[in-house]
Amino acid sequence: MTDEHLRKILIFFFFATLDDQKAKLLSKKCWNWCLSKKLAQSKLTSEEILILGLSYQWESLKNEPRYGVTKTNQDSGWIIKSDFKIEPWVAYQKNASEEEVFSMLLCRVLEINPDIISKSLGLSKGTINYRISKGVRKLGNLVLESGGIL
Amino acid sequence: MKKRELSYFMVQEMLYDYATGSLDKDRHSDVKAEIEKSKSLQDELFQIQTGLSYINKINELKISTSLLEDIKSEKNYLHFIKNSLSISQWPPIVKWTIEAFAIIFTVVVLTVVIPWDLAKEFVFRESRTELILAEVSKKSDEKISDVLVVEKSDEKKESDTFEDEEKVPVLASASAIVKNDAKPQAPPSVDPIKTQGFVYRGTASVINAQMGSVKLKEKIVEFGGRKAGEVELGWRRNQGDYYFHFTIPESRYEELQEYIKTLGELKISRDPHPRIMPNGIIRIILTAQESKN
Hints:
The complex is a heterodimer.
Chain A: H1 3-17, H2 20-40, H3 46-61, E1 78-79, H4 87-95, H5 98-109, H6 114-121, H7 125-145
Helix pairs in contact in A: 1-2, 1-3, 1-5, 2-3, 3-6, 4-7, 5-7
Chain B: H1 8-20, H2 25-37, H3 39-58, E1 62-63, H4 65-72, H5 77-85, H6 92-113, H7 116-123, E2 142-144, E3 177-179, E4 197-206, H8 209-222, E5 226-227, E6 235-236, E7 242-249, H9 253-263, E8 264-273, E9 281-290
Parallel strand pairs in B: 4-9
Antiparallel strand pairs in B: 2-3, 4-8, 5-7, 6-7, 7-9
């Protein structure tokens, strides 16, 4: 497990929770879990362990209410560009289904191969593609409603 | 070979793959041709492309090295304890269980600490008893006086006992029929000077006791009488006679006596009794038996 995997974990939980403190705690838990799994399971690749670790932590997170607000500050460690508008993502994350958000984060945000995702989670590739295409449309619509990307 | 046309729905479903370049060459050109024909498909494609561009911006998020090092650092035992004790980090079921126990504990403490008996005594300090002694029908030439409510005293009154050990309820209020042409009278009240009550005990030897008892019951009710014990008026006893225990306005006593004499022979006496009736009301215990003549 490399720094790149840790970076993906941090990005995943940041956009999943929109809460610095929670994202940090969950990232730490997930990272420790992946490390222990890597030691125990030599057959799984790092990517597969990463997906399983994220999926495991996602189970505890997905039923929590989403209020559509962010709890972040500049010194948290996640460096967001000043011209990036987070509001469309906040609106999308609040209203979309858990499966859709999870698939979007794994496939589009972390850029993990859909084949590895479908193999690790036991889902068909078509299901993942369907969720992502729905998610991208919704997100695009929200971005346009908020006045575009910039 | 005839070219198969794509439906609007199929093109819609393939827009995402078209935007990400996942379609094969032939399918890509077919979808492109359909998009060029339809404004709505072009708008949808633009939506998808905007969404993809936004996600590319998300991928530009950077992580500071301090955060990376913090996550990778060795486990800090105190930090672990601090996080474990943080209620917000506990699973929801644990939080709900603790909240439920807290509520139960609060209810138990309140139940034990607060003196509910004293509170109950304070709230229900005074009790009132109201009992109607006689039913009266309101006619045009009559006026019914007020019904009094007298507070029950704290001393327990003796219960009455007869040959049949029947219990009599405590009498605590009075009503009287007042004629319209009579002077308005003050509402009846318990005479504070009376210290000894009385009861009329009598026996009537009636020809055809069964029919006679029915008529007698009707007459008692007509005069405003009402049962004073637990059994109904004219209750047939094991001995074969008919038992009447009732109260009646004193003003109708003479009339009642005259009526009973039309049914048969009447022997009646007035005996002292510890129970004091309100003014204007008398109590009678009468048995009607078959005449031997």
